[in-house]
Amino acid sequence: MKITDVRAVYPNYRQPLGGWRPYLWQIVVRVETDAGITGYGYGGGGVASVEVVNRHLRELLLDERCDSPTDIERLWDKLYTASIPYGRGGIAVMALSGIDLALWDLLGRAERQPVYALLGGSSAPRIRAYASGNDPEWFAEQGFSAHKVSCGRPAHAGDYERAAAMADESRRYLGADALLMFDCYMAWDAAATLKMAHTLAPYDIYWFEDTLTPDDLDGLAQLRPQIKPIQLAGGEHDFTHHRFAAIAAAGALDIWQPDVTWCGGVTATRRIIAQAQAAGATVVLHRGGEPWGLHVIAATECEKLGELVLGNRHRAPEALWLDAPQTENGYLTPTDAPGFGLRLNKELVD
Hints:
- The chain is α/β, with parallel strands linked by helices.
- The chain has 2 domains: 3-112, Enolase-like, N-terminal domain (Enolase-like, domain 1, 2-Layer Sandwich), CATH 3.30.390.10; 127-348, TIM Barrel (Alpha-Beta Barrel).
- Helices cover 38% and strands 17% of the residues.
- The chain contains 11 helices and 14 strands.
- The strands form 3 sheets. Strands 4, 5, 6, 7, 8, 9, 10, 11 and 13 form a 9-stranded mixed β-sheet that branches. A 3-stranded antiparallel β-sheet has the order 1-2-3. Strands 12-14 form a two-stranded antiparallel ribbon.
- Strand 9 (255-256), helix 10 (265-279) and strand 10 form a beta-alpha-beta unit.
- The longest helix is centred in the first third of the chain and has 22 residues, at 90-111.
- The chain is globular and about 60 Å long.
- The two termini are 27 Å apart.
- 46% of the residues are buried.
């Protein structure tokens, strides 16, 4: 197939996001071919990455062929190299992620295979889902047996007591055998992390996520052995296998969490997973319960654990993608439909 057009669009989101995110959220990328087959991808970076796709990367893809996974990897390298002067991470790689996912979707549709089959997977496994948010009663009602608590900066002694209360609430609703994790979104320092590890020791926490900033690899490496048996997780704000090579060299994290829609797409994620295996690290994809992540999890050595960012029962997420797998008793199964098996909700992009 020869690529005839590439276009990115920022959806008409109806639920405004706070802070910096209203115009830096997820984009849709469409790739068209002379075979009449179209692939759709999902990238990050918002309106800024729409410009990167439409005003630069698009022109590099026109008339290129996409007939195999090798072609997709070749095109990834071409686009990454061309964007190095202003990229290597951030918005440029988020834009590249959307293109890469569209190419994998395109190839799956052309071959009439799900993406996980293109990646070498032979079947669609049941993948345990974990809910991110602070409504454990609702999560338990939906059958989840794994929960990630959001916990901000501890400014006072009472904040540690509140963290313990949240852990206790989660255990009360989901049970003693549930997986329980804490995400602080880069809001803790080393001292706070150590105190949290002590405070939460009775609750059998699986991991602490994004404790320090991702730039402080040395600090993370020093902190990592001090909070055992709690695992140190991170990586959603890191881009491509080049950055994860530095994480491996520093020994900064037990659990690597690349985001398929941000870190460079499926192509970069596969390379990151190979690095993790060599480094003895575990990979748990950030937002891995979304369709893109499910296909990667199904076909690779990722931990079979997929995150769904659910918030709470009072605010349902917008349905930008239709036909996405739904949880059943706390588990997800990727679709067998060609590509990622999704339809775009055109009400949000027209």
